[in-house]
Every structure is written in structure tokens, then in C-alpha cells.
Amino acid sequence: xxxxxxxxxxxxxxxxxxxxxxxxxxxxxxxxxxxxxxxxxxxxxxxxxxxxxxxxxxxxxxxxxxxxxxxxxxxxxxxxxxxxxxxxxxxxxxxxxxxxxxxxxxxxxxxxxxxxxxxxxxxxxxxxxxxxxxxxxxxxxxxxxxxxxxxxxxxxxxxxxxxxxxxxxxxxxxx
Length: 175
Hints:
Distance between the termini: 40 Å
Shape: globular
Radius of gyration: 19 Å
Number of domains: 1
Structural class: mainly beta
């Protein structure tokens, strides 16, 4: 019992020291997606409105996000509508400042999953981040365009392809 307590305390102290050395960001935003969904016998337009939060720890290039989406499938005369939870994980391949401007460009690759109407796929985020307050490098405004490909498995099989665009704000703690 004593060894277990010492081990747990050591892990907590080491993980808090590692986390204290990182810059952590928390962001929030809105994303609109326009896609086409098909079961290969016909196709329907798919619109997705998502409110999300994201989390990233610098210098690691992985960004995790969770959101709530309202998905509308079909023509405006008789649409199918439902609410889903969306999970995303993006690996930023490039993260470059654009000269002396307060802008940064990021390009990445990622995955997404949705529940309770189960779906999953891949995404390719490309975005600009703007630091509007030069004295506060922690506050950012971001604009992102993301091509997406994937599928829904329930309630019926469907393949989707499209793109989303999002606007968000983010604050880095530790900068």
C-alpha cells in the first residue's frame, strides 16, 4: 500500500512539472460544413453547424477538439435533421509565422468521429491565426478551411465529401 501511494505521488509530481513547462491553449469557435452525402444510388446535400472547443499543448503539434453539431441532410423542402457530438484530432505538419506580420499559417492532417449517429473520416486543416494584440501573444483569432472525407455507418451507410470553414478564438496560458 505504501509503495502504491509513493508511486502515485511521484507520477502526479512529475506530470504536474511536465504540464507546467508547456504552453496550453483553450479555444472555442463555430464551423460550417457543406458536403455531399451518397449511398452510391443518389446524393443529398449535407450541412453541418458546429460549436466547438479545442485544446493544444505547445510544442506538441496535436490539437484535440470536441463539439456539438446540428446536421441537416437533404433538400430544403424535406430535410432530415439531427444533433451529433463531434470529436477531432489534428496533427499540424506545418506551423509557420508569416514574416513580421502577426499572422501564422498551419497545415495539418487529422481524423474526426461523430456520435450517436456514428461516423468517421479524415480531414486536412489549413488555417491562419492572427494575434491582434502585440503585447499579449496569448490571444489568437483563427480562420480555418478543412476538406473532409468520411462516412456514416448508422442509421444507414453513407459516404461524405466536402469542406468546412471555421472562425475561432484561442488563448494560450503560459505565453
